[in-house]
Write a structure and sequence with these properties.
About 40% of the residues lie in helices and about 15% in strands. By secondary structure, it is of the alpha/beta class. The relative contact order is 0.22. The chain binds 4-nitrophenyl phosphate (4NP).
Amino acid sequence: MSEPISSILFICLGNICRSPLAEGVFRNEAQKRGVADQLTIDSAGTGGWHIGNPPDQRSIETAANHDINISHQVCRRLTSRDFNTFDLILGMDNSNIINATSANRANGPAQLLLFTQFAGMRDDLEIADPYYSGVEGFETAYQLIKQASRSTLDRLFAD
Ligand code: 4NP
């Protein structure tokens, strides 16, 4: 590995739409490369409305359309401890980063960055919240997440 990163936490607002998709898609891409056993991969939300719930049905279906099962995931909230236990915390949009740094939660050594930024994609590119959109918004999120996952793995496992 070119960078000492072995644990990644994906975050969004609710932890029912985007970050569960990111957790599932990133793990799937890591498995395809044979590096999943070298990584701890998880997701959490900055908000606490859906704690204990499975992902949004539209996220489950979008993932299933691409042969990825995320139905077993359970929503949890981001904690201050996550900043000590994860090397990297990746947000889907800028408000996720702002929310994660508020309330004194970001008090550990974890790097907190926009997912697309870590992946080296366009600077202002966010993975938009699809919660109030139709299924197309979920597919758009999936495509961006897949691209960002591949670029992130290229970066982490560069020769
Ligand atoms: P997510 O989407 O942040 O991608 O999980 C949302 C899910 C739920 C809510 C907002 C965004 N909510 O307000 O309940």
